[in-house]
Design brief:
The complex is a heterodimer of chains A (362) and B (246). Helix content of chain A is 73%, strand content 4%. Chain A is mainly alpha-helical and 362 residues long. Chain A folds into 2 domains: 73 residues, Transcription Regulator spoIIAA; 217 residues, no CATH class. In chain A, helix 6 packs antiparallel against helix 7. In chain B, helix 3 crosses helix 4. Chain B is globular. Chain B has one domain: Rossmann fold (3-Layer(aba) Sandwich), CATH 3.40.50. The relative contact order of chain B is 0.17. The longest helix of chain B has 18 residues. Chain B is built from 8 helices and 10 strands. The chains are: A mainly alpha (362), B alpha/beta (246). At the A-B interface, helix 8 of A face helix 2, strand 6 and helix 3 of B.
Chain lengths: 362, 246
């Protein structure tokens, strides 16, 4: 292939009898190995067995104005090529808007921001609807399936308390060990009880319980409601004359309201027990002394604040999860996405609300 | 007399118009079949008529009263008079078949004695030949059984109009034929109005009194089922007479 390519006679390449995708790839590789201007005649005369890749290959060779030509395309291959519907020519790409890259970026940001604002509006509307539906249900006791609140309480409370207690016990142990090190330096060993009691009742139990509920209850509620939406069960409820936002959400909101106090009480005990064990092991502090020291600092108001915070976090989790579940699209993959978004939304709301509570309480 | 009458109705999702400017009527006590190729907007139209999807233009009246999508009361009136058989059945998975059928009765008439509710459920399930499966959960039922169960639920409150979204899809010919027989019995025995969305030719031949054909985003044909055979239209001929597409 040396010398002036245009002057050299074209090289004839005989394609094999079987020309399917694998052989087409080989033929293309062979063409690429040749100099760019090398003149080649691809002879399809022997081809008997072919597939759509071979037909596309014939079209590719013919349309590219390469110094490569297709020859002897006949028989079954020619007939198949006639019926091979080719891609229409690509539509001209519309000119980008004149505002340039920065303008497009700004517009995309604005669109995204507006989407978020609309979603926030829908969320707040749902929040208002739920308050209305709960009020309506408590007044009339209608519109909710009998026994559903108990089912939800069983799931949210009975099936959640082991993990809540275990994690809060471990948090109590961890906080206690961390604090003990510093308190020993200052000779303030006895204050470990105050720290554990105060931190657990006011902050750690509400926050950790909220996060555990977001992961366990929130994700499950979203997955269930989103599946129901995708499978048209929510539509079915609506055409039965029921209000899905009431039928599905009110039992869950009532259940979380009723189980959270129990969960908080158990979590408080578990966390304080963890701290107490560490205090006994580290400082030799007797449980009675620990409790006496703790009750000097914390009282029922701290428990009540912790409880109030956790109930609000629980509502945020259930409403956030319901919002994501009931506004999901129509495809199965959106169920997974909605579930993930629900957990993120719930945890974000919990932390924002916790911050708001910090301003209110302190 | 038409129990549903649409005028200039346009339907779709968001800003996407799937069907535009439809004007038609659904005659009372008869079976109206809505048909068209996949993606022609049959189910979208059904959802709009069932009060689930607001129209993008025009509107329709139910038994002479215009349906206002912004009014909960107006939609509630529609929901009280319709039953919907969804494509997949849409039975609630956490409830047994009997509990699914009892659901609309219990929710709308909470003061009915439980014995009466159970009798109504049994009668409803017997009507669709599913009384033996009353205590089964939807996951334990075959596709055909789920649809029959869902039909029993749709009929629980004795609706005036039953919408059926592709009742035969995914069913074998025998089960599909039984379901069609059920729909015919509902019309003949109870004088019920049925709107059936399908593209199953056998079903159409068996049950249709009136036919609406959707094509290219418009209402292509609106006439008696008997008029289909003589229709001088390339699309109809292709659809029904199985001629190859031009």
């Amino acid at each position: 292939m040396s010398g002036t390519p245009s002057a050299a006679p074209p090289e004839r390449v005989l394609l094999p009898k079987r020309l399917r995708a694998a052989e087409v790839v080989d033929a293309l590789a062979d063409l690429r190995r040749r100099p760019e201007n090398a003149s080649v005649v691809l002879d399809f005369g022997q081809v008997e067995e072919f597939d759509s890749a071979a037909l596309a290959f014939v079209g590719y060779v013919r349309s590219r104005r390469l110094p490569v030509v297709a020859a002897n395309v006949g028989g079954a291959l020619a007939r198949a090529e006639e019926s091979f519907v080719r891609r229409p020519p690509a539509e001209p790409v519309p000119a980008p808007p004149e505002d340039g890259r920065a303008g497009r970026f700004a517009r995309a940001c604005a669109d995204r921001f507006l989407d978020r604002v609309r979603a926030l509006g829908r969320f707040l509307a749902m929040l208002g609807d739920e308050a209305y539906h709960i009020g309506g249900y408590l007044r009339t006791r209608r519109g909710v399936y009998p026994g559903e609140t108990w089912n939800q309480m069983f799931f949210m409370g009975y099936q959640s308390y082991p993990i809540v207690c275990l994690l809060l016990f471990l948090v109590g142990v961890t906080i206690s060990i961390t604090s003990a090190e510093q308190l020993r330096v200052f000779g303030a060993d006895a204050y470990i009880a105050d720290i554990i009691g105060y931190a657990m009742l006011r902050e750690l139990v509400p926050l950790m319980t909220g996060v555990i509920l977001a992961g366990k209850v929130g994700a499950a509620v979203t997955a269930e409601l989103a599946s129901m939406t995708v499978l048209e069960e929510v539509d079915a409820l609506r055409t039965m004359g029921l209000v899905p936002e009431k039928f599905l959400m009110v039992p869950r909101l009532l259940a979380i309201t009723l189980v959270v106090p129990l969960l908080v009480a158990m979590a408080d005990v578990a966390g304080i027990l963890g701290g107490m064990i560490v205090a006994r092991v580290t400082f030799g502090m007797l449980p009675a002394a620990f409790l006496e020291q703790m009750t000097n600092t914390v009282d029922w108001v701290d428990f009540a604040w912790g409880l109030a915070k956790t109930v609000v976090f629980g509502w945020a989790v259930v409403v956030g999860a319901g919002f994501k579940g009931l506004t999901v699209g129509r495809s199965a993959e959106e169920v997974g996405r909605a579930t993930t978004e629900s957990v993120v939304l719930s945890i974000t709301m919990i932390i924002v609300l916790d911050c708001v509570f910090a301003f209110i309480i302190y | 007399m038409d129990i549903i009458s649409a005028r200039g109705l346009s339907v779709g999702y968001g800003k996407t118009e799937v069907l535009r400017d439809l004007t038609f009527g659904v005659p009372e006590g008869r079976i109206t079949v809505v048909l068209g190729v996949s993606g022609s907007g049959k189910s979208t139209l059904l959802k709009t008529l069932a009060g689930l999807l607001p129209p993008l233009g025009g509107g329709f009246a139910f038994d002479g009263a215009p349906v206002d999508y912004r009014s909960e009361a107006s939609l509630a009136l529609v929901y009280r008079r319709i039953g919907v058989l969804y494509q997949g059945g849409a039975l609630l998975n956490g409830l047994t078949l009997a509990e699914n059928v009892a659901l609309p009765i219990r929710m709308h008439f909470p003061d009915l004695p439980e014995d009466m509710v159970l009798d109504m459920v049994h009668a409803g399930l017997a009507q669709v030949e599913m009384a033996d499966a009353a205590s089964k959960y939807p996951a334990e039922l075959s596709g055909g059984m789920r649809k029959r169960g869902a039909l029993a639920r749709a009929l629980a409150l004795d609706p005036d109009v039953v919408f059926c979204d592709e009742p035969s899809s995914g069913l074998d010919p025998i089960t599909s034929s039984r379901l069609d027989g059920l729909l015919l019995r509902l019309k003949e025995t109870f004088g019920m109005t049925l709107v059936v969305v399908t593209h199953e030719l056998r079903s159409i031949e068996r049950v249709a009194d009136r036919v609406l054909v959707l094509h290219d985003g418009r209402l292509h044909f609106d006439d008696e089922a008997s008029a289909l055979a003589g229709a001088d239209d390339a699309f109809i001929r292709t659809f029904f007479l199985k001629e190859s597409a031009p």
